[in-house]
Amino acid sequence: MERQLPRGYFGIGVDGISKPMNLGAILRTAHAFHASFAFTINAEFDTDLVLQSDTSVAINNMPVHVYPDLSEFSLPVGCRLVGVEITEDAVDLPSFTHPPAAAYVLGAEQDSLSPALIERCDFIVKIPTRFCVNVSVAAALVMYDRMISLGRFAERPVRVGGPTSVLPQHRHGLPKWKKKRLAKDAAAQNAAAPAPDRTGSGSD
C-alpha cells in the first residue's frame, strides 16, 4: 500500500548556486520527496552536468523554475517562503512547524542568503549542526524533517527498534459540506414527518 502523502505542498530552491552537481542532487532528492516544484534564483549551471547527478531526471517529472534574479521570483498565492540560514533569530529545524504550503530556499555554496531574500522570507530556520553542511545535504535534511513532521507514520516504540503495530489505514470521510447537507436534509424530513397517533384504540 502506498503511503498517504501529507496535505499541502512544497517546493525547494537555491539562491545563486554555481555547482551543477549540487543542483542535480537537490533536484533528485526533491523528486524523491514528492516536491511540487523546484527553483533557482540568480544561478549559473549546465543542464547536462546537472543531469549527471540528477539521475531521476526531475526536470521531466516536476516544474523547475529558473529565475534570473530576485525581482523575477514569485510563489503561488498562500505559499510561505522559508529561508534556511544560520542567523541569531533562526528557529532550530526540529522545533519548527512547517506551513502546509511552503517553499524552502537555501544559499549557494560557501555563501549566505542575500539580505534582500531574507527580507522576503516568512520564516528563517537553521539546522543545528557544528558547522555548515553541503547545500544538497541541507536540502535533504529540510525535506526529511518536513516529511516526518507532517506525514503519517506508526509511533516510535519506547524500546529500541521499529514499531510493533502497523499504522491503520486512513479512512476518508464525506466532505464537510456534504455532511452538513445530509444533516440538514435529515432534520427537514424529521420536521415534516406526521406525528405518531397516541390516541390509542382501547375497548370497553
TrEMBL record:
Gene Ontology biological process terms, A to Z: methylation
UniProt keyword annotation of Nucleotide-binding present: no
Keywords: Methyltransferase, Transferase
Domain tRNA/rRNA methyltransferase SpoU type intervals: 12-144
Location of region: Disordered: 184-204
GO MF: methyltransferase activity
Biased composition (Low complexity): 185-195
Matching InterPro entries: Alpha/beta_knot_MTases, rRNA_Methyltransferase, SpoU_MeTrfase, tRNA_m1G_MTases_N
Pfam family, any one: SpoU_methylase
Domain of life, source organism: Bacteria
Protein name in UniProt: RNA methyltransferase
